[in-house]
Design a protein that fits this description.
The chain is α/β, with parallel strands linked by helices. It has one domain: LmbE-like (Rossmann fold, 3-Layer(aba) Sandwich), CATH 3.40.50. The relative contact order is 0.17. A seven-stranded mixed β-sheet has the order 4-3-2-5-7-9-8, with helices on both faces. Strands 1-6 form a two-stranded antiparallel ribbon. Bound molecules: zinc ion. The site of zinc ion has 5 residues, from loops.
Length: 257
């Protein structure tokens, strides 16, 4: 039992043992996808690892890129598997950044920003929140794609949850306003049809050869079954589901306390 507890705390996946909470009310979002697909719209994608953006949002990112969006990917770690002492961290970092750069080119994103936090050990601490705040203030996105920290899938990677928390804390702090699309959610209230983009999505996911190459069939089947489930939300064969919120402020200026 002690061994199991120690192992559970060492490995980076989290399970909601007492049952996964769901939102009390989860009304469908009225986000019109045509509102997103605009030339020049600024979209920031905040993820934990190289490969997350393709895995969770490869379809919508291709659509945004083709529509002429300016898309800035921010990756909190280099995916160097810092928590495995038997891995070559420097080589992992080089390979995975290379894969992420190539995948981002395919969906026409700007060169990715890598923040270099510890893979598998990300904390939603001041350093990460400040780094994200800086990127949000610099880029001024109209749309943020981030992880769902409140209603994540279970099990899910602890880094995804922490980066999701830090993203929301960072935009709260900078009083950002816009559309928030939360990925890897168990409570999607909006979905983007990727039926015609399945081939594109498969190709970009598989750019991450070092992660998915050896288990290609399993990974594609997993992504496809999730896309079928998310498709049910909008009557599409395949879709990417998100928990969407329009973030607004009563007053855009800083309040005095
Ligand atoms: Zn990840």
């Amino acid at each position: 039992m002690g061994g199991f507890v120690a192992f559970y705390h060492w490995q980076p996946w989290e399970v909601d043992w007492l049952g996964a909470l769901m939102p009390e009310a989860n009304p469908r979002s009225d986000l019109d996808s045509a509102e997103l697909m605009k030339t020049g719209i600024r979209v920031m994608v905040v993820v934990a690892h190289p490969d997350d953006s393709e895995f969770y949002a490869g379809g919508i990112l291709h659509a945004l890129g083709e529509a002429g969006a300016r898309i800035q990917l921010v990756v909190a770690t280099d995916g160097d598997k810092d928590y495995y002492w038997f891995e070559d961290h420097e080589e992992n970092s080089l390979i995975r950044r290379g894969e992420q750069d190539r995948a981002t080119d395919l969906w026409r994103g700007l060169p990715p920003i890598y923040l270099g936090f510890a893979d598998g050990r990300v904390r939603s601490n001041l350093a990460l929140r400040r780094a994200l705040e800086r990127e949000i203030q610099r880029f001024e996105p109209a749309v943020i794609l981030g992880f769902d920290a409140e209603f994540p899938r279970s099990p899910s990677h602890q880094d995804h949850r922490r980066v999701g928390q830090a993203t929301e804390a960072a935009f709260e702090e900078s009083r950002w306003q816009g559309w928030l699309l939360r990925m890897e959610t168990r409570a999607p209230n909006w979905a983007f049809d990727i039926t015609s983009r399945w081939d594109q999505k498969q190709k970009t996911v598989m750019v991450h050869e070092s992660q998915f190459g050896p288990k290609r069939e399993f990974i594609l089947e997993l992504i496809r079954s999730r896309a079928e489930k998310d498709g049910e939300l909008i009557g599409a064969a395949l879709a990417e589901g998100f928990r969407v919120t329009r973030v607004t402020r009563r007053s855009a200026s800083k309040q005095a306390y």
